[in-house]
Amino acid sequence: MSDDAMTPETDSAAAPSRCGFVAIVGRPNVGKSTLMNRILGQKISITSRRPQTTRHQVMGVKTVDSAQAVYVDTPGMHIMGKDRNRAINQFMNQAANQALRGVDCVVFIIDRTRWTEEDEIVLKRLASLEVPVILAVNKVDWLKDKKSLLPWLEEVAGKRSFTAILPISAKHGTGVAELEQEVARHLPDSPHYFPSDQITDRSERFLAAELVREKVMRQLGDELPYQMTVEVEQFKDEGKIIHIHALMLVERDGQKKILIGEKGERIKQIGREARLEMERLFNAKVMLKLWVKVKRGWSDDARALKSLGYTFDE
Predict the structure, then answer these.
(1) pTM of the prediction?
(2) What is the reported pLDDT for 293?
């Protein structure tokens, strides 16, 4: 974790307070964001069936009595290759690696009984860590042969000395309470870093941009490549009504046409779905306006990425 300006909460409590950072890591599309949303009981990290939906570190804060766990959702660690060697892919891998700095515990998620080359990459990056590493075997509800799980758990147990190995379903909640209990056991004695009612370090402006991007990923994941991002140009909160103007950036004219759709129907549908979810999240009426703009080469330009918010403290 980076050293930023967070100051521990000093409110006194009857029991000694505990607080720690917990990195949620794994290869792309194993359910990291779904798990954090399940733990928090609210959507903070966007999800889709497409790998690399998460691009930023996102903190989710869960406070129960005297214990506060600060979960850090990370981009999936992935193999760099010919079609994954852009600046944005480098940023995502760097963001995932940086999230491991200074954490008190790691939750390493894998997908059922599958072990891939990218899982091996994550395992190697955890090798030098001396903090507890919990292995969460996700999507066990999808297993047709439940008997295959036990020998698989025995097999992965030999890959490193995990603090615990827990089968879970992030989507349905199976085993998640047990995972949280295991995490709580490894939180150090410390004042809380966030107020008890705060659930994320991210701004509403950031969450709004992510919700728009989620709707694009869910609707056009197979048609529109990953060279798309969202920038909120205006976020004006008037109490009962929030006015949001969001710009969707793509790299080619053809991508712009896909995003707008025939007679503007696609962009209208994206706007409707994003607006409804924003209203649930912000508990206010939302007036959302969307535009599309072509910005060639933004995903492979470090300076452009920084201007679009793809940054973190060194």
Answers:
(1) 0.81
(2) 93
